[in-house]
Amino acid sequence: MATKLEKAQDKYEQLLRDLAEKAIMLEQLQLVSDGVRQALEQARESVADRRLELEFIEAEIARQEESSQQNREELEQRKQELEQLIEERSGAIDVKKSKMAPLTKALAGAEYDFKFADKGMTLERQKYDKAKRTDDHDALRRHQENLKRMKIDIMKRRRQMDDLKRQIAKLEKPIKEYQQELEEYQQELDTLQARLDDSDDEQRQQLLEGLQQQRKHKQGELQRAELLVQDRLADVGEDLFERRVRHPVLEKYYPDIDTIARVIDELMAEDKK
What we know:
single chain, mainly alpha, 0% strand
């Protein structure tokens, strides 16, 4: 608990500051001694500078926090888009493959049947050639008819295979394109996820912590500068009071200061006893 003397001293300094602030309000600082006035001006400038520096740091902290949050939100949004695209492309590939599977199976069967039919026609041609050498007209005619029928069948089978190949190729082209896109999306997703998990956030956090430390330090400087202004105001009031600067308004403060000054002297005298 503060003693009577400490309370009186605080009251004395407050009266001096009140006197100084009244002089500032009345624009009468020219009445103050040059050195005292300059010391006050320097202290007030220091406060203004510290406040400006603190505002800059706080603005940078806000910008970093907003930038970090915005950047993460953008990455998260792109991640969702990529995941959606990957799901869509994977689904499209599955649909195309499901359509292509029976065609591939049909083509394999058609190629097997074609080889079998082609081999049968080769054997039939051999029989035709033999009948031709032996002048077996009945066999020659029979084999000739068989060859005609087989050629037509071979042509049909070839057209069937060509048609199946075209259908498969029509499906294979978008599948390849989708697979390429899928790989690109997956690579981008992996890179993006790495950025989300990476030390980028740690670096940003370290930067923010550094700025917050600077803010704390600057707040301390500002508090000390503001306290110095209070001291300089008291010096201004004391300068006006001690020199009893004549002014119709300022002079009204002098009696109260005289009174508290006498109280301080009395209390100090009592302490010495």
